[in-house]
Design a protein that fits this description.
Largest sheet of chain A: 2 strands, antiparallel
Strand content of chain A: under 5%
Radius of gyration of chain B: 18 Å
Number of domains of chain A: 2
Strand order of the largest sheet of chain A: 1-2
Largest sheet of chain B: 6 strands, mixed
Oligomer: heterodimer
Structural class of chain A: mainly alpha
Radius of gyration of chain A: 23 Å
Shape of chain A: flat
Chain lengths: 254, 251
């Protein structure tokens, strides 16, 4: 988490994008995704430009195309759903490879696939070039309430411990002959989920005690603060500037 | 006599009505290392949580002449550092360095001053190289050192340690003794590890059922077999407690 090697979403590299302050990266990514999302779906050329921009981003950030494709698997459920739309949707029908499908449905399907893929790719590059604590600090700097970012931070810090604990509980069950195969054997798992809840709750109380003991008064101190230079803001603005320009032209043209 | 800590008639009951502390009286001189012994459930940890006002019972807690009240909680928490039993509870930030910085940052330190404080605290426990590491990748001994550093970074007058030797290997335990002996602080060490208490602490108190039932030089306490037995304590196999006599300890 802290040094990078600990987190699956992060690619440990040194690139100009890695070195940008997190808040400018987050702002840039969000603005770009927003402009992609409102680009008219008929402007196919616009999406081609977006794809090229993403490719350039992957190149500059040294995140790697293999990494991008592996992480894009997460978008597959949405794409699978999008594939169904042309068959379900009503309206004017057209023939594709001998199958009659809805024209509107085809557009809707393309819209979802193109925008989801570009949006997800942007956030994969963002996560691949920014360590989790920096992402959270960046969100803080963009005035996301500290309550949210500290909850996320604690969740990430203690997730590993909870997973370990579940593993130990599972081992303890197995070593006493519990080897579930059928649904009706699930009761001990449900019970252990309850036990995990109580244990996590108690840990939460102890962590809070430890924080209060060191002077915590409800606000996390800002330890990773770095104010970006104008140059850095301009660098990060390149991507959304392209996105917005393309989006505006596409809107006017269609 | 210069008292680092004074507790008078401290009583505390948990919300379910169970009484945890039933009138604790305690006085600890500045610069001494005191072991807090006693069976499980005797109220040792509950007592520790009262020393910097995390729990508030009735009675008086005075730290370095300052009586704990609602208005000086911050100053009291700066003066009394607590090292909790499970280091995972104490290390909650992304890296050890940030964790050590957490306390002094809450005190308002920033920039170079904060960095110097972090470096000094890590230096005291010989753990400077841990600063950039995430806590979940540390060994038990490293976690313990880091946890102690987080408390030292507050520059406390008293350091309270709850079961510091639990889960440490013999060498880690030895290093812990050396680290703690090297600190110029008043120490209060809650422990079941009697040889550890003997080696580190000049004085010991026994807490049982929420009160202090015995107090004295550690060697004398540990030589009193009848007293130990009465409170579910005993020297480990192979140690002859009664042979300790008036051996001076903790030097």
């Amino acid at each position: 988490m802290g040094t990078g090697h600990a987190h699956a979403l992060y690619v440990h590299e040194h690139s100009p994008i890695h070195h940008l302050p997190p808040q400018v990266k987050i702002a840039g990514a969000v603005a770009f995704i927003f402009s992609v999302a409102i680009t008219p779906r008929e402007a196919m050329w616009a999406f081609a430009i977006y794809a090229v921009a993403i490719a350039a981003l992957v190149r500059i950030s040294k995140v790697g195309f293999g990494f991008l494709l592996t992480r894009l698997i997460g978008v597959l459920p949405f794409i699978a759903f999008a594939f169904l739309i042309p068959f379900i949707a009503s309206g004017e029908q057209v023939d594709v490879l001998g199958i009659s499908v809805s024209r509107d449905g085809l557009w809707a399907s393309w819209n979802i696939i193109a925008k989801a893929t570009i949006g997800a790719s942007t956030s994969i590059v963002l996560a691949g070039t920014t360590e989790v604590p920096d992402l959270l600090a960046g969100m803080n700097r963009l005035r996301v309430p500290t309550l949210f970012t500290s909850i996320a931070g604690f969740m990430i810090r203690y997730l590993g411990l909870i997973v370990d604990e579940i593993g130990r509980m599972r081992t303890a069950m197995t070593s006493r002959g519990y080897d579930p195969r059928w649904l009706w054997q699930a009761k001990p798992i449900a019970a252990s989920a309850g036990a995990m809840f109580i244990r996590s709750y108690e840990r939460g109380e102890r962590v809070h005690d430890a924080m209060v003991a060191r002077g915590y008064q409800g606000e996390m101190p800002e330890l990773r603060r770095r104010d970006p230079s104008v140059q850095e803001w301009l660098t990060a603005a390149a991507l959304p500037a392209l996105g917005i320009t393309v989006m505006v032209i596409a809107m006017v043209a269609t | 006599m210069n008292l680092a800590l004074e507790v008078r008639d401290l009583e505390f009951s948990y919300p379910d009505g169970r009484q945890a502390l039933g009138g604790v009286d305690l006085a600890i001189e500045t610069g001494t290392r005191v072991a807090v012994l006693g069976p499980n459930g005797a109220g040792k940890t509950t007592l520790a949580l009262h020393l910097n006002g995390i729990l508030r019972g009735s009675g008086v807690v005075t730290v370095g002449g300052l009586e704990l009240n609602d208005d000086n909680l911050n100053e009291i928490r700066r003066r009394v550092g607590i090292v909790f039993q499970d280091a995972n509870d104490q290390l909650f930030m992304p890296t050890v360095g940030e964790d050590v910085a957490f306390g002094p940052a809450n005190l308002g330190l920033r920039g170079a001053e904060l960095e110097a404080r972090v470096e000094a605290a890590l230096g005291e426990v010989d753990a400077t190289e841990l600063a950039q590491r995430p806590p979940h990748h540390l060994s038990g001994g490293e976690k313990r050192s880091a946890a102690i550093a987080t408390a030292l970074a507050m520059e406390p007058q008293i350091l309270v340690l709850d079961e510091p030797t639990s889960g440490l290997d013999p060498l880690g335990r030895r290093e812990l003794v050396q680290t703690l002996q090297g600190l110029d602080l008043t120490l209060l060490v809650i422990t079941h590890d009697l040889p550890f208490a003997l080696e580190l602490c000049q004085r010991s108190i026994i807490v049982d059922r929420g009160t202090v039932v015995a107090e004295g030089p550690t060697a004398e306490i540990l030589a009193n077999d009848a007293l130990l037995q009465q409170h579910r304590l005993e020297m480990p196999f192979g140690f002859n407690g009664s042979a300790l006599g008036d051996r001076s300890t903790g030097s």
